[in-house]
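Throughout our pipeline, every protein is held as a single compact record rather than as scattered files. The remainder of this section carries one protein's record, kept here as part of the documentation.

===
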Amino acid sequence: MLTKADEGASAVHVEDRAEVEFTETGDGLACAFRGAWTTRTVADVDAQMRSIEERPGVRVMHLDLGQIAAVDTAGAWLIKRLAQKQANQGADVDFVNASETTAILLDAVDDMAKQEDAPATAARFEPLRVFETVGRNVASLGSDFLAGMDILGSTIRGAQMKLGRGHRVNPAAIAAQVDKMGVGAIPVVVLMAAIVGAIIAQQGAFQLRYFGAEIFVVDLVGILIMRELGVLLTAIMIAGRSGSAITAEIGSMKMREEIDALKVIGLNPVGVLVFPRLVALMIALPCLTVIANFAALGGAMFVAWSYSGIPPQAFIDRLRDSIDLSSILAGLIKAPFMAIIIGIIGSVEGMKVGGSAESLGGQVTTSVVKSIFIVIVVDGLFAMFYAAINF
C-alpha cells in the first residue's frame, strides 16, 4: 500500500517520463501520449515510436495529446514525424485534445519533419537550367565589370590614403609589392620562357628542315616571342602567381573584418590595399616581359646552335634583320593593360569573399580563371587591332 508521499513521488516520476500507448481499432490505430515529451525523455520512446511509424496497412490514425504534461520541440518533432510517416503511407492522421502550446510546436516542426521524410530525387537534366546558368553568369559578369570600373576609377582618381585629406602616394608600399610580385617572379618567368622558346625553336627547325630553310626559325621565334608569347606567358604566370595572392590577401582581410576597420578609422581601402598592388603590377609586368623575351630568345638560341648548327652570332644577325621596333613595342604595349586587368580582377574577387574558408578558396580559383581567360581575349583583340592598323 502506497502512502501519500509515495503516491506523490510516483506521480512526479511518471510525469517526468514520456509514454505512448497504442490500441488497434477497426480501421487503424489510436495512440495516446502521456508524461513529459522533452529533450531529456524522448530518447526512451524513440524506438517504440519508430516501430509504430513502420506499421503497414494503417488507414486511420488518431493521436491523443490530451495527457501530455510538458512538451518541447524535440517531443513535438517526434510526434510529427510519426504523423508524417503514416501520412506518406496513405493513413488519415488527426490530432485530438491538443493544447495550444502543443499545437504551436507541432506547426513549428512541420517543415523539419517533411524535409527529413522527403524522398531523394535523382538529378534530372532540364534544358531551362542551361539558360538559367548562362543568364546568371552574364548578370554576374555585368556586376563584376561595374565593380572593376569602380575600383579602377577610385584608383585613377587618386591614391587618397585618408578620405577627404588630399592625395598621397606611399612609395614604400609600392616598392614592397614590386619586390614581391616582380623580383620574386623572375626565376619562374625566366625558366618558363626559356623552355617555351627552346620548344618553339626545336619544333620550327624540325619542320623547316624539310624545305632547307632552318635559318628562318630565327624569324619565327623572334616575331612570335616579341609580339605575342613573351607578354602572354608572363601575364598568365603573373595571373596565377600574383593575381591569386591579391585575392587571397584582400579576401582574408575581408573575412577578419579588417577592411571594415580601415573604413572606421577613415582610411580608403582602395588607396591602402588596391592602389599599391595595381601600380606595382603595372611596373613589374612590362619589366618581366622584357626579361621573358630575353630568356626565350636565349633558349631558342641554344637549341638553334645545338640542334640546327646555327651559331649565336648568326642567330643574332638574323634576329636583327627579322624584327624591328614595332615588333618589340607590340608586346610591351599590351603589358600595362594586362597588369590592370589582373589587378582589378584579383581585387574584385577578394572583395567578394564571404566569411568561410570555402568562399576564400572559391574566389581565388575564380580570380585565376577569369584573369587568364580575359588576358588571352585581350591579347587576341590587340592582335586584330595591330593587323587592322598594319602595325
